[in-house]
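We emphasize that the prediction below concerns an isolated chain of 376 residues; any contacts that depend on oligomerization or on bound cofactors are therefore not represented. The input was used exactly as deposited, without trimming of termini.
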Amino acid sequence: MEPMPPSHGLVPSISLQRASAALASLFVGDSLAMPVHWYYNTADIERAFPGGIKKFEAAPEFHPSSIMSLHSTRRGGRSGRGQGLPDSPEIIGEVILKGRQHLWGQANRHYHHGMQAGDNTLNAHCARVLMRSTIANDGRYSRDHFLQSYIEFMTADPPAHRDTYAESYHRGFFANLVAGKSPHQCGARTHDTPSMGGLVSIGPLAINALLHGTALVAVQANCRDHLCLTHPDEALARICDGYVALIAGLLLRKEDEPPDRHLLVAAQTTMGIDLARLVERTRSDREIVGGRYSTACYISDSWPSLLYLAYKYRSDLKAALLANTNLGGENAHRGAVLGGIVSLACGSTVEDWFEQLVDHQAIQSEIAALLSLIAA
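Result of the prediction step, given as a token string:
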């Protein structure tokens, strides 16, 4: 049964509490995992941080799994054959990430070089771009307003964020924009288009629309349209539909309704997984995340891994985010989405971690401003 959106001006306080916690936890989950983002060997995490990550940490100088030096600086994907004409413009350094191109050609350079404990990655900053765009547009998402805001943010000189790396989708988008395509048609397709990073900004968009009383089917359509701007992939869009339905179920459920059913339905409808049985029969998280499913970004593995962690740790956000971080791989973007889902399930964030974010005050103000417009 589709969850009922709130009537205009009658948003239950429990839904607003869940929304606030989920938005905060997006940034907490991202930042906690940042220093070991794309560490594909968990032993490397242990070597860099004995006992594993337990709190916010700065990005180490050395990254044992980094292949940033192999990635194209002219378009999406990796360097080499088929990666564009020799005279195609440099996207990294000239269009986006101005002044940081020199960091890309170095072996074992950390993707988030120079970032400090509590910093957020670029994709989390783009979720903030969406939130600020929505706030500036009187609380309603506008595709055109977002695109303008995204382009201005990404091309700022100096950069308006502290990250060193831009995922394939950012590079592909701006390569198409420089080539003269309309911003609405700049979404690029590469081997990693159907990836977890595409879902990071969907949570704020869906939460805002649902609390405004928009019907689920319309929210799903809007989120698909937004996703297609940067991640034009049908398989990812189908997962996005299921993700938005899960957000709706968790956000709008009654105060005394457990979250279990919504997580179980999401796993069954999107992946055909019996989530309760999977968790019951699993002895360690690594059997699933890094065992049954790869820890890479591809949505076919990262989405079921996320659902497993969300269900197992649905009442303990801190445990969920620590487990996710120390499993490695695509843990920052997975952590951003996981943080939002588990906070919707349990109704809270990890307040002491949220307060330690480098941009805590700005993020807190943006969340408050977004939610204040719900009943306006």
